[in-house]
Structure formats: C-alpha cells, structure tokens
Design brief:
alpha/beta
C-alpha cells in the first residue's frame, strides 16, 4: 500500500538527507511493531507524533510500504490533519489566524474515527488534508478491517480536554524528535512552497508554529518510543 497523500507536497525527495534519516527511523518502527506481534500484543493503531515539520508524513508513507514487506499488513492511513476545521469554519469562529493549533481541529471527530478503526466493524473512510487546497477532504482514505492503522499528527500525546482521549486509542506511539532550528528552517521552506513570501513564512513560524512546537515537545513523555530525526 502507498500513501495517497503524495499530492500534499510534504514528502522528502528520495535522495535527500531527511529521507535517508526517515528510512532509518522507519526500520526501527517496523522492528518495534514486529516485536509487539511476536510477543502476542499486536499493534492495531500505530501513532507518529512530534512537532510540525519533523517528517511524520514521510515516515507514515514509508511505513505503509515497509510494514507489508516485513509481513505485517497495513489497514490504511488515518492522519490527524484530516480533522482540520475548514477555512470557512475557522473564519466564522475567528481563529483562522492560528490555524494548526489544537483548537482548530475537530478532535471529537478524530477520537470517534480512532474508536471506529479499533472496533473494526467494517471499512472506514478517513478524511485527508490537501495542502494544495489548504482544506480537509472527507472520506478520502479507506481503512480496512485487518492490519495496522497508521495515524500521524502533532497532538497525539496532548493532555488538553478532548485530546487527552487520543492516547488511549493508540497502541504504539512514536515521538519523532528534531532540533528546533532545523524544524524552523523546514517550516519556512514549506510555507514558501505553498505561496507565502519568506518574511510572511518566517513570521508564521515565529508566531504560530513555534508555540505548537513547544506544546508538542512536552508530550514526549507520553510516547512509547522516542526517535531522533
């Protein structure tokens, strides 16, 4: 299975150092999932968390290929970013100026989705987030009854109201750690690739992304595994 999120433009190129590092982390996560299966405690929901820009989407896509190669079926992808509020809702609520913060997501919908994929009563269609459109798209990613569900996002370990329910629905939570300076540089380039000029991109990183990075970093202790990228 391959990720349908390639259109988001967030994957690293195959030859980049970031991709090589992601591949190393991917191998370690595959080993952890396989060990859980051997011990009789298989993973249904695998979570990848960490600050924005740390490579979670790239690693999720790699895992969707690497886990089946190791004999571990993948049910599908269910990214947290699919639960971004739409731009219209953000504008109506007056919170578009900090899009990406915890209060700009439908966390109740995300928790409900994780509960549905855990019950495995049937195929679930998860939403995705299209960075080229800057909007969530409903019912985009099929999640099958059997196999590992890969979910990734910034706030999987958060203990704020609503978000605190997420952790208990994830069997193996992996925190991807990256130095702040490297994250800031990546995020500026990401924002520029989607149309912001450098000054605007740097301002967004300082005023919005940096606060989110600090918030997410404090959730590291709730993870089962911390890996550095």
């Amino acid at each position: 299975m391959t990720s349908s999120r390639a259109s988001s433009g967030r994957q690293a190129t195959a030859a980049s150092p970031e991709c090589a590092q992601a591949s190393s982390i991917t191998r370690r996560i595959v080993e952890a999932v396989a060990e859980r299966a051997r011990s009789g405690d298989p993973v249904r929901v695998l979570g990848l968390t960490g600050p924005p820009g740390t490579g979670k989407t790239t690693i999720a896509a790699e895992l969707a290929r690497a886990l089946p190669e190791a004999g571990i079926p993948v049910a599908g992808l269910a990214p947290m970013d699919g639960f971004h509020m739409s731009n219209a809702v953000l504008a109506a609520r007056g919170i578009a100026d900090h899009k990406g913060a915890p209060d700009t997501f439908d966390v109740g919908g995300y928790v409900a989705l994780l509960g549905r994929v855990r019950r495995a009563d049937g195929v679930v269609l998860a939403p995705d987030y299209r960075r080229d459109l800057h909007e969530p798209i409903a019912a985009s990613l099929p999640v099958e009854v059997d196999g590992v569900v890969i979910t990734e996002g910034n706030y999987l370990g958060l203990e704020l109201p609503g978000w605190a329910d997420v952790r208990g629905l994830i069997d193996l939570l992996v925190f991807i750690d990256t130095p702040f300076e490297e994250l800031a540089s990546r995020l500026i380039e990401r924002h520029m690739s989607f149309g912001r000029d450098r000054a605007d991109a740097a301002h967004w990183v300082r005023t919005v992304d940096a606060a989110n990075m600090a918030l997410v970093d404090r959730t590291k202790e709730r993870s089962d595994l911390v890996l550095s990228l």
